[in-house]
Design a protein that fits this description.
- The chain has one domain.
- Helices cover 47% and strands 0% of the residues.
- It is globular, with a radius of gyration of 17 Å.
- The termini are far apart.
């Protein structure tokens, strides 16, 4: 692959934290400003003031979200379970 498209329009800081490879790549190529809108949203998607954000502010928030996410377990409850996992969990009920 040479080109990748990631639609971040509806991302919050939590979404950025769950996609560290994307965020780190944008940071490494100097394009972290493309995620300015993410930094301007709280964890619930509510808009916060972004007009005064500097490039350093954006980097700080994105790096902190990635760092925090790597130390907290991710919620995988929306991930579909495999038949084997379902069978193992069902066996524990009886």
């Amino acid at each position: 692959m040479t080109d990748t498209y990631v639609d971040t329009r509806n991302w919050t800081v939590n979404d950025a934290a769950q996609h560290p490879a994307v965020v780190q790549k944008l940071i490494s190529i100097g394009k972290a400003d493309l995620l300015k809108h993410v930094v301007g949203l709280d964890a619930h998607g509510s808009t916060t003031a972004t007009s005064g954000l500097t490039a350093e502010d954006i980097l700080r928030v994105l790096n902190e979200s990635i760092r925090t996410a790597t130390h907290e377990p991710r919620d995988r409850s929306t991930r579909p379970s495999s038949a084997a996992q379902t069978a193992r969990s069902a066996a524990g009920w009886f």
